[in-house]
Specification:
By secondary structure, the chain is an alpha+beta fold. The strands form 5 sheets. The chain has a 7-stranded antiparallel beta sheet with strand order 13-19-18-17-16-15-14, sandwiched between helices. The chain has a 5-stranded antiparallel beta sheet with strand order 6-3-4-5-10, with no helix packed on it. About 35% of the residues are buried.
């Protein structure tokens, strides 16, 4: 992040600390509790997610001449050719809909369907059909694998889970998010400690827990509360993406330092919500990614990973990052426990509304964006223009 931006945000944090208040909206707001339980809404949310670029892997997980499969909202087959070009397909044989490739990863080869033996090249082209005369009246082009849009940015692979036009990630992320993430230089980071977590809570409740720090003092007393200034955060919306800054207790150290030495990552954690389901926690010497998928109406799947500037160079360094992640995922389990209690309370029908305080404005933005995305496309585009850049 540009140093001028860091200084601007830290000055705002200092001013809010002097006033004893957090950044946020002008007024509290409410959310209908039914949005977490409604089956029809859940199905619409899944369809909305199909249409968006979703983070599915790190680029380094797919070497030239290799493939990777992911079974998320839809089964995916990612294949990189020897020249480095990456393509993505639905991992589904076009004959009778069988999953084509069961291996998680490997060297590219001719992919043969385990049901009837149809075969495909790594570029998705149909290669062969046993007893092909039975399908002679079908155009072969119709029988190639279904290709879906894929692009790479920030050292990550982004895929739309349905066919459509090419992804324009520059337009999707916007100028500010691109500038921030390019400054982190994460294309050169290395993957550490990937996680695949399933818990019985609605996917939106999982995202909610990341988007405010109001709960830290109570829910995270045993893990991270000692690090953070009580309920002090900065919140900005950039299109449908959100950038939060959760301030640490060492903020006052800045008063004894020249601005040239101010370091945002030392004095707080940046938390990015990348629409529609990826959260990125920026810590002083590493980044933590959590991509949240619905795993049913009342279940969540979180694919998490950490990015390090380099492989741990010693056992001491390895233990340091392992301890960091132990704290991170212990705090996440505390969040899951709270989310489960929220879900139980909603199901009990105790209230028709849930409330968002002024300093929980990022939750309001997230759910507003969902409401817009689930409406008519023309309405969605109009509303998107109106909220862009709102603070």
């Amino acid at each position: 992040m540009q140093h001028a931006t860091q200084v601007q945000l830290l000055k705002k944090a200092l001013a809010l600390a002097e006033q004893g208040i957090s950044d946020g909206a002008e007024a509290a707001s409410a959310l209908p509790a039914r949005v977490y339980l409604d089956e029809q809404r859940y199905q619409r949310e899944r369809q909305m997610l199909f249409r968006e670029p979703l983070l599915v892997a790190r680029s380094t997980e797919i070497a030239a001449g290799h493939f990777l499969t992911r079974d998320l909202l839809a089964p995916l087959l990612l294949s990189r050719d020897p020249s480095g070009r990456l393509r993505a397909f639905l991992n589904v044989c076009k004959h009778r809909g069988t999953q084509l490739v069961s291996d998680v990863a490997g060297a590219n080869r001719v992919f043969v369907c385990p049901y009837h033996g149809w075969s495909y090249n790594p570029d998705g082209q149909l290669r062969g059909i046993p007893h092909a005369y039975g399908f002679a009246d079908i155009q072969r082009a119709c029988l190639n694998l279904t290709e879906v849009p894929v692009a790479e940015r920030f050292g990550a692979v982004w895929v739309r889970h349905s066919a459509g036009p090419a992804l324009d990630l520059a337009a999707f992320f916007g100028e500010q998010i691109l500038a921030d993430f390019d400054s982190f230089a994460i294309d050169r980071h290395v993957l550490f400690d990937p996680q695949d977590i399933r818990r019985p809570v609605n996917w939106k409740l999982t995202i909610d827990t990341f988007l405010e720090n109001y709960h830290v003092a109570k829910a995270h007393q045993a893990t991270i509360d000692h690090l953070f200034w009580p309920n002090l955060g900065l919140f900005e919306r950039h299109g449908r993406h959100i950038r939060n800054f959760y301030v640490k207790r060492n903020l006052q150290e800045l008063r004894d330092l020249p601005e040239s030495q101010w370091d945002l990552r030392r004095h707080g954690n940046l938390l990015y919500f990348l629409w529609p389901n990826t959260l990125v926690l920026v810590e002083p010497d590493h980044l933590d990614f959590s991509t949240v998928f619905p795993d049913g109406p009342l279940a969540t799947r979180v694919l998490g990973h950490t990015l390090l500037q380099q492989e741990p160079a010693s056992d001491q360094a390895l233990r340091y990052f392992q301890k960091n992640n132990q704290i991170l995922y212990s705090a996440l389990e505390e969040d899951f426990a709270m989310a489960a209690q929220v879900q139980a309370g909603i199901r009990a029908g105790a209230s028709e509304q849930l409330w968002h305080g002024r300093f929980e404005v990022a939750l309001k933005w997230f759910h507003q964006a969902l409401d817009v995305a689930l409406d008519d496309p023309q309405v969605r585009e109009g509303a998107s223009l109106q909220v862009h850049g709102e603070r």
